[in-house]
Amino acid sequence: MGSTESDTYSRVLKNYILPFSVSAAAFGALFVLRKFGIIYQLFNKVDKTTKRNGGDIVGEVLKAHGVKYVFTLVGGHISPILVACEKLGMKVIDTRHEVTAVFAADAVARMSGTVGVAAVTAGPGLTNTVTAVKNAQMAESPVLLIGGAAATLLKGRGALQDIDQMSLFKPLCKYCATITKVRDIVPTLKTALNEAQSGTPGPVFVEFPIDVLYPYDIVYSQLGVKENGPVNFVQRIINWYLRNHISNLFAGAFEERDKTPLKPVIPKASSSQVQKSIELISRAKRPLILVGSQATLPPVPAEQLRKSLEKIGIPCFLGGMARGLLGQYSPIQPRQKRGEALKEADVVILAGAVADFRLSYGRTFSRKSKIIAVNRNKNQLLKNSDMFWKPTIAIEGDVASFITELADGLKGFKCDQEWIQKLKDKDNDKENVNREKSKEKTEKHLNPLKVLMEAEEVMSDNTVMVADGGDFVSTAAYILRPRSPLHWLDPGAFGTLGVGGGFALGAKLCRPDCDVWIIYGDGSLGYSIAEFDTFTRHKIPVIALVGNDAAWTQIEREQLPMFGSSVACKLDYLNYETVSVGYGGKGCRLDRSNEDKIKEVLLQAIKDSREGHSVLINALIGTTNFREGSLSV
């Protein structure tokens, strides 16, 4: 098993330095020897003949951690990693934009319970990922971003695509590291992968200078050592420095090291916190649970969480990745009038839900309500509690583990059926209003509610829905019903447009037997429509339903009445279906001319997708007053 640098220096200090009385100069000399790696090189030699490289080690660590997919946009800085991963049996998916690679890794992380991995080249390759990394941070997704970088000796010297990448990602990632020696790859990646999953999950970043990834002979040939002709004193010093640098870079590089994954640290509720919560809920007459995305995180399987919620029997509003947790229809899941329900509830459990803009910063809670808040992240746990609400019990711990313990402790509890029925009646009333509204004729083209209700009717029980858009997607959230746990993907609190292509890639890979639908707005479609090429090349068929209203309608709805102008809000009714065909997929159009065939067109898209074709349905829609009064800021 390969020794670490710290082990080597500790051995030298113990055996050769500390037994003797030495001067400060000796310790200074030792510091210099350590800085240049000379002592480590005495005990760990360089294999100059091996054809192995740092990319091989990266691949081995990823494989040992159960990574199945690596998303990328290729670049010379990272080629050894991609080649090694493919040789080791991982599927390498190259996208048309680096941001898509990270979105795809995010989707894999959410749906598989493992770390999603994206690898991109240096400089602009990395800067292109910033939005997706920030989205993963806010969505609490464990993503490993691997980035190329200039050679260790050339950093800051004007090398191609050389920028200070670490300063970009430190505010966005839980853990950032740069590899300076090949022997550091294994421990650094193990730490990064563990950090991504521990506590509140999130993205991590590891930077790989190009010379730690390529083989020794190639790196040496590019080093600039002057081998021939007369060599003066200065050149000899330079040659020594360069040779020592590469020797330190590769010393002990390919010794066997333990690649076993580290165990993530996950906070749990204390037994006293669970007991206090049980007592509070036992006295409740109108309890309510708000379940957020964090509830779907490992270690508790989503199916076990579902059984626990059903066992407790308290009405649940589901948000984010928790949509679908209770199936398409559930007697304890109301979907409408959440604000009214919160005003009436006497006990509210925030199970990973956060009192941010989605809950009006806590203003939607009744002042009389007792609130149990559970979240792994302390900042999210207490968000806005200094202004509009106060938790009765605040638990910094894993949500699903808490719910499971709660279910075990509430064995004799039975929620008031009148309360449950009252919420379901309000739900049904709103659903009936929506159904009637879907029958109204719009001024032109199709009623968006009608299109979505037809889609809801034809979608199979084995459907994954990806939400990417503004107005059309917000409408869809009221109409479409995810069928199963972990079968709904949306960007989360950051509200990012452009997630569709990447999320669908990751979703289809994790759920190859599912129909994967992207619900697009026509504005958001522009960000990732090029990924239809990726779907085609990698044989990853998906269905895209585009609500094409030729505008950024969610913004225009407020901007026009407030300021009397639609400037920058207008788009055109473009033929997006032909773009899909150009990228190797199929396309079709829905408008008033074939309104009576909406279901037929949607069913054909499902059939085509199951036969291996990606399909884009360009649904031209008009405007309704369904979302009047909604705010986009």
From TrEMBL:
Q: Where is the Thiamine pyrophosphate enzyme N-terminal TPP-binding domain?
A: 53-168
Task: Specify whether Metal-binding is a keyword of the entry.
Answer: yes
Cofactor(s) in the UniProt record: thiamine diphosphate; Mg(2+)
Q: Where are the transmembrane segments?
A: 16-33
| Family annotation (Pfam families) | TPP_enzyme_C (PF02775), TPP_enzyme_M (PF00205), TPP_enzyme_N (PF02776)
Q: Which reaction does it catalyse?
A: (2R)-hydroxyhexadecanoyl-CoA = pentadecanal + formyl-CoA; 2-hydroxyoctadecanoyl-CoA = heptadecanal + formyl-CoA
Q: Which GO terms describe its cellular component?
A: acetolactate synthase complex
- Keyword Translocase in record: no
Membership in a protein family: Belongs to the TPP enzyme family.
Q: What is this protein called?
A: 2-hydroxyacyl-CoA lyase 2
